[in-house]
Amino acid sequence: MITMTNSDDINNKIGVLLVNLGTPEQPTAKAVRKFLRQFLSDTRVIDLPKVPWQILLNAVILPLRCKRVAKSYQKVWMKKGSPLLLYSQAIVDALRQGMDESKYCFALGMTYGSPNLTDALLSLRAQGAKKLLVIPLYPQYSSTTSASVFDRVTNALQRCPHLPDFNFISNYAIHRHYINALAQSIKPLIVDKQTDAHILFSFHGLPIRYCENGDPYAKQCHETVDALVKYLNLKDGSYTLCYQSQFGKAKWLAPSTESTIISLAKRGCKSVIILCPGFAADCLETLEEVAIGLKATFLKHGGEAFTYIPALNDSVLHIELFKSLVVTHSQAWF
After folding, report:
1. Which residue in 12, 47, 210, 280 is a FRET match for 195, CA 20 to 30 A apart?
2. Residue 83, CA distances (Å) to 13, 29, 77, 259, 326 in order
3. Each residue of 218-238: pLDDT tens digit?
């Protein structure tokens, strides 16, 4: 049972829970199967009728995808483990080191896989947390990501006899520190005006039906890019907002990053710079799909120079963003 509050306990810290999507424990077909089954069984992620979807998932999708996905993980797996886990933990560690430990304590949780959210909440309780601030590591809100975090955190707290004060940050799509951190990561490549590279802002894809049902994800992706374009004073035609990581036969947000890459190369574009603003930490989708896969695609179709700008990870400016979020959303508790 999770109990965040105990009146006899002298500790009274604010527990900050940072949450990312999750990762297999190993780059093996068995570990990938376990992870994907949990991920793709979430009705927030896949909103199709449950029984037919589970039959399709277990009989067709998992047997076909697990070995292929495991091979992709093996290309980017680091000596100490999963990139997403390591970079996400680095964010938490840097935030812990940069804030007042008498007021705040920190933990990392994953929506799927390990460390799970229940264990992360128990860790915060053990550190003396009496109030809870949840920060999903998704700059743009989606019912498929941020809302899943909310569901699982509140589910884990259901048996808590004394619920903590609870703040949930749904997005930070146009937060000034976020836009500044992104801008500074790309600025050195364009500030001297010596490059004619086309800039791609690539976000994770989403089936259009979610947006048609009220999901604000696409709108917030455009808001992020609009803020970046204004900050960097980019000219019309010098950049494209696009969406990656699409699968299945549903109609997805467009244009796709892959089709955009191919089109640019065929039209004679020789150089691209690609930034993935929706990924707080580098992971399979950025390191393998983009930095390896899309680079190969661009070069295959006639491109010559492909520059992937890493995710913000535990960079100084990224940590300043999270410090600002923590202080702003917890100040009423002091």
Report:
1. 280
2. 30, 17, 6, 27, 24
3. 999 999 999 999 999 999 999
